[in-house]
């Protein structure tokens, strides 16, 4: 059975159910599997014939042993991915000889977050019913996680959701996807600050043990291991469609919190032949700079047309760091302490060289992003959102050797960012009919300062938690 440990070394031997419920480890670290399950080439060949739900059950089964059986997973995944708008769930489109787009925006809230969030909602339902417990999910969003979480958990009797977003820094469509769902178990908080401030507050609430216990706090950001596991499935799906395990593939991933690209790293650890993972950032380029020089140094967050990636502190980077440090949790603790104190740390040259053999980084300026939206439409007829355009720009800079397909992840529907897309391409992307009235519906949000006590009080008062 796969057991879980914390990246900071304070916890070992946890099972999936407690990792799912806890979200963040009690020592401040992130949960990772103590050992990676491995799929052989024969296993991968067998997976080629599977539907998306079957594949999800196959990939996730080793991670959920003791909590969910393969049959449970298949039941949940069939329900979840049956709700997606596209029959292929995650369709692949060829843009050029070796360049492909993996569309991950056909779920209920039009972004890749639905892949994991919808499944997490099913998992929480079953576990909480079994245990007779109620939890409070506290999350931070730069737009898409919040929309996906509110949609997935609204109206659930054993879950309350408090979602913090940076006021004025997400698109109106993203905001309205959260704030127009007027459910008693949902609290939207518009925070005076950046996404990083929101995420810091969530971590501070986790560190406030009495508060954490009082509200029975949980997480659905990608700090929760279940998010990463569920997101790794579409890497298998895409690579298998393009010839894995007999042909390697490369991925380019628009990146902010490093969850999505870490899910690709997880797929590679499980035996999927991924030759290259490219980390694409916008002007908030802490990760791109890391891959250039091995220094991870925080800078101010600047607003861009790809707001979901306006992030400087990439939570999941800590998971990769543990692998780079050769599983030395002490090294992770020291680096994270240095980061907390001075806003930076450095890895040694050997680690950087090792990771650079298969991980590349790059960033796209606002001008390059807009040009990529326009060019892609002109060349291929595809209208892409700004996050997808960032990835396509960086993919062009780091194309793998000829014959290896580069799969660039398309993480959001262009209609979530209509102004940026229209300015770049001259075309106004339309929302699907089910969102026809989104811009007319009443909203519910409270505002808050960047203050731990203020936000904690908002949460306990709103949900009448004594
Ligand atoms: C549309 C979109 N693209 C890319 C990202 C970046 O993904 P990650 O935070 O997993 O790096 C996000 C935010 O998570 C997003 O919402
Ligand atoms: N871009 C994200 C930020 C949070 O990412 P997560 O994957 O850790 O939940 C968003 O859209 O909210």
From TrEMBL:
<dbReference type="Pfam" id="PF00291">
    <property type="entry name" value="PALP"/>
</dbReference>
<dbReference type="InterPro" id="IPR029144">
    <property type="entry name" value="Thr_synth_N"/>
</dbReference>
<keyword id="KW-0791">Threonine biosynthesis</keyword>
<feature type="modified residue" description="N6-(pyridoxal phosphate)lysine">
    <location>
        <position position="113"/>
    </location>
</feature>
<comment type="pathway">
    <text>Amino-acid biosynthesis; L-threonine biosynthesis; L-threonine from L-aspartate: step 5/5.</text>
</comment>
<dbReference type="Pfam" id="PF14821">
    <property type="entry name" value="Thr_synth_N"/>
</dbReference>
<dbReference type="InterPro" id="IPR000634">
    <property type="entry name" value="Ser/Thr_deHydtase_PyrdxlP-BS"/>
</dbReference>
<feature type="domain" description="Tryptophan synthase beta chain-like PALP">
    <location>
        <begin position="93"/>
        <end position="320"/>
    </location>
</feature>
<dbReference type="InterPro" id="IPR004450">
    <property type="entry name" value="Thr_synthase-like"/>
</dbReference>
<keyword id="KW-0028">Amino-acid biosynthesis</keyword>
<dbReference type="GO" id="GO:0004795">
    <property type="term" value="F:threonine synthase activity"/>
</dbReference>
<dbReference type="InterPro" id="IPR051166">
    <property type="entry name" value="Threonine_Synthase"/>
</dbReference>
<keyword id="KW-0663">Pyridoxal phosphate</keyword>
<protein>
    <recommendedName>
        <fullName>Threonine synthase</fullName>
        <ecNumber>4.2.3.1</ecNumber>
    </recommendedName>
</protein>
<dbReference type="GO" id="GO:0030170">
    <property type="term" value="F:pyridoxal phosphate binding"/>
</dbReference>
<dbReference type="GO" id="GO:0009088">
    <property type="term" value="P:threonine biosynthetic process"/>
</dbReference>
<dbReference type="Pfam" id="PF24857">
    <property type="entry name" value="THR4_C"/>
</dbReference>
<feature type="domain" description="Threonine synthase N-terminal">
    <location>
        <begin position="4"/>
        <end position="81"/>
    </location>
</feature>
<comment type="similarity">
    <text>Belongs to the threonine synthase family.</text>
</comment>
<dbReference type="InterPro" id="IPR037158">
    <property type="entry name" value="Thr_synth_N_sf"/>
</dbReference>
<dbReference type="InterPro" id="IPR001926">
    <property type="entry name" value="TrpB-like_PALP"/>
</dbReference>
<dbReference type="InterPro" id="IPR036052">
    <property type="entry name" value="TrpB-like_PALP_sf"/>
</dbReference>
<keyword id="KW-0456">Lyase</keyword>
């Amino acid at each position: 059975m796969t057991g879980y440990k914390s990246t900071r070394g304070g916890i070992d031997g946890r099972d999936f159910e407690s990792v799912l419920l806890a979200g963040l480890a009690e020592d401040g670290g992130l949960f990772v599997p103590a050992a990676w399950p491995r799929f052989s080439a024969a296993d991968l060949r067998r997976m080629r014939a599977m539907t998306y739900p079957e594949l999800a059950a196959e990939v996730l089964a080793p991670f959920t042993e003791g909590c969910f059986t393969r049959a449970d997973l298949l039941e949940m995944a069939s329900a979840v991915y049956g709700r997606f708008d596209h029959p292929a769930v995650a369709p692949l489109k060829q843009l050029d000889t070796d360049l492909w787009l993996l569309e991950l925006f056909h779920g209920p809230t039009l972004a890749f977050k639905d892949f994991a969030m919808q499944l997490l909602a099913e998992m929480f339902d079953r576990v909480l019913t079994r245990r007779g417990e109620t939890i409070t999910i506290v999350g931070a969003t730069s737009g898409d996680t919040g929309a996906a979480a509110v949609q997935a958990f609204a109206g659930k009797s054993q879950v309350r959701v408090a979602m913090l977003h940076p006021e004025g820094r997400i698109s109106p469509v993203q905001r309205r996807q959260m704030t127009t769902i007027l459910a008693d178990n949902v609290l939207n908080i518009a925070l005076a600050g950046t996404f990083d401030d929101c995420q810091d507050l969530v971590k501070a609430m986790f560190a406030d043990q009495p508060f954490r216990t009082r509200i029975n706090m949980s997480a659905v950001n990608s700090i929760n291991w279940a998010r990463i596991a569920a997101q790794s499935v579409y890497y298998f799906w895409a690579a298998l469609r393009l010839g894995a395990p007999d042909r390697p593939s490369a991925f380019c991933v628009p990146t902010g919190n490093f969850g999505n690209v870490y899910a690709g790293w997880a797929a590679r650890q499980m035996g999927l032949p991924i030759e290259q993972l490219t980390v694409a950032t916008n002007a908030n380029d802490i990760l791109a700079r890391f891959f250039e020089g091995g220094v991870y140094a925080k800078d101010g967050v600047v607003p861009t047309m790809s707001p979901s990636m306006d992030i400087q502190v990439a939570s999941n980077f800590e998971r990769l760091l543990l692998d780079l440090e050769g599983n030395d949790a002490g090294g992770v603790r020291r680096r994270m302490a240095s980061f907390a104190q001075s806003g930076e740390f450095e890895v040694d040259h050997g680690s950087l060289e090792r990771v650079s053999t298969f991980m590349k980084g790059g960033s796209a300026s606002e001008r390059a992003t807009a040009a990529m939206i326009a060019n892609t439409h002109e060349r291929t007829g595809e209208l892409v959102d700004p996050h997808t355009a960032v990835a396509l720009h960086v993919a062009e800079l780091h194309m793998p050797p000829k014959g290896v397909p580069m799969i660039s992840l398309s993480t959001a529907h262009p209609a979530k960012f209509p102004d940026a897309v229209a300015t770049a391409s001259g075309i106004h992307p339309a929302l699907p009919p089910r969102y026809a009235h989104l811009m007319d519906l009443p909203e519910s949000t409270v505002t808050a300062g960047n203050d731990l006590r203020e936000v904690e009080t908002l949460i306990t008062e709103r949900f009448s938690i004594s």
